[in-house]
Design a protein that fits this description.
It is built from 16 helices and five strands. With 345 residues, it is α+β, with helices and mostly antiparallel strands. The chain has three domains: 79 residues, no CATH class; 126 residues, Exonuclease ExoI, domain 2 (PX Domain); 125 residues, no CATH class. The radius of gyration is 25 Å and the shape is globular. InterPro entries: EXOI_SH3, Exonuc_1_C, RNaseH-like_sf, RNaseH_sf. This is Exodeoxyribonuclease I. One of its GO terms (molecular function) is metal ion binding.
Length: 345
């Protein structure tokens, strides 16, 4: 649904008549028009009484997406056709400027860019240079000077996810749908990148050096992409899904890879915990209790109970969120009763 949400933003910016009563949308802290769904949906005929409810938000997004598709069919068609990874790679690898539309800080960000890493379809992202930057002035710069230039905000180099359906327009499509063309400066920067592979390579190298080092994977969820399954474990996975729960419980310890062994055990624990040995049940219960009750600030990890309670308090402040907050309270109370704090002491 993120794809549709960003298309909403795009259509709102490009065709003000598509989204009704745009002037009534709230302003962001920066004084720009905000595009939050809880404000956008009611203004466009969707009774969004349960804002922040996952299913209701999906329904509201579909409603707005339909408006865009019906009122701007050509724009919608262009976005949908560019969504597959292969289409994204092809457009970014064309060595021509590409118009990029993003949703940043609750508002639209529209800019001309050009891919410089030359990695094609390899990897999950592309390094794209903002063509509004005067790159020609940076060609003679030292590595240290380039590093400083790449560290300003907004970042002159951006990583664009190849498999996240970014909203991209070729120069011809941008002119047709938006009436936008690259400036002389942007065309000049594009030509510079095409003619100077050495400069592109320097930028890519320095950009990668500036990237923060990834923390070592500690938790199972972080390690799941650390390698492929062996053929024997692939066979066990297929068997696991064919067996009943008793058979699955018996298969757990046969997995060679500890990651798959743990995943299989977690599935059995959630569905039929009585089929695990008492010590395994207790160990898993303690592990879950520690996760639930230990507060942390790492947004990449799971949501703790204290964090969930804080979020529910925010939902409760909204008049339309009282019912949802009550339902979430009841669900959390069930978790708290099942995984008590004394388990992890």
């Amino acid at each position: 649904m993120k794809r549709s949400s960003r298309a909403i933003c795009l259509a709102t910016v490009s065709r003000s008549e598509c989204i009704k009563r745009r002037s009534q949308l709230r302003l962001t802290e920066r004084g720009k028009t905000g595009f939050k769904l809880d404000a956008l949906a009611p203004l466009n005929g969707f009774a969004h009484a349960r804002a922040h409810d996952a299913l209701a938000d999906v329904e509201a997004t579909i409603h707005i997406a339909r408006l865009v598709a019906e009122r701007l069919p050509s724009l919608w068609k262009t976005c949908v056709e560019a969504a597959p990874k292969a289409a994204t790679v092809a457009m970014l690898s064309a060595a021509d400027p590409v118009l990029i539309v993003e949703h940043f800080a609750n508002g639209p960000s529209v800019w001309w860019g050009q891919r410089i890493d030359g990695e094609g379809a390899r990897g999950t992202s592309a390094i794209v240079a903002r063509l509004g930057t005067d790159w020609s002035a940076l060609v003679p710069a030292s590595d240290a000077q380039l590093g400083a230039a790449l560290s300003v905000s907004p970042k002159p180099l951006r990583k664009i996810g190849l498999n996240k359906a970014p909203i991209l327009f070729s120069t011809s499509a941008a002119k047709t749908e938006w009436g936008l063309v690259p400036t002389d400066l942007e065309i000049h920067q594009s030509q510079l990148f095409r003619s100077d592979p050495g400069f592109r390579e320097r930028l890519v190298r320095i950009h990668e050096e500036l990237e923060p080092a990834r923390a070592e994977a500690v938790h199972l969820e972080q390690m799941i992409h650390a390698g492929f399954a062996s053929r024997s474990d692939e066979t066990r996975m297929a068997r696991f899904h064919q067996l009943d729960w008793a058979g699955r419980a018996g298969l757990v310890r046969e997995f060679e890879d500890a990651r798959f062994r743990q995943l299989a055990q977690r599935l059995v624990f959630e569905a039929v915990p009585e089929m695990l040995a008492p010590e395994d049940r207790e160990r898993l219960s303690q592990a879950i209790a520690k996760r639930l009750w230990t507060d942390h600030e790492d947004k990449e990890l799971w949501r703790s109970l204290p964090a969930a309670r804080r979020e529910i308090d925010e939902v409760r402040k909204d008049d339309s969120g009282a019912v949802l907050a009550g339902e979430l309270d009841a669900w959390l109370e069930g978790l708290e009763a099942r995984f008590t704090l004394d388990r992890c002491e």
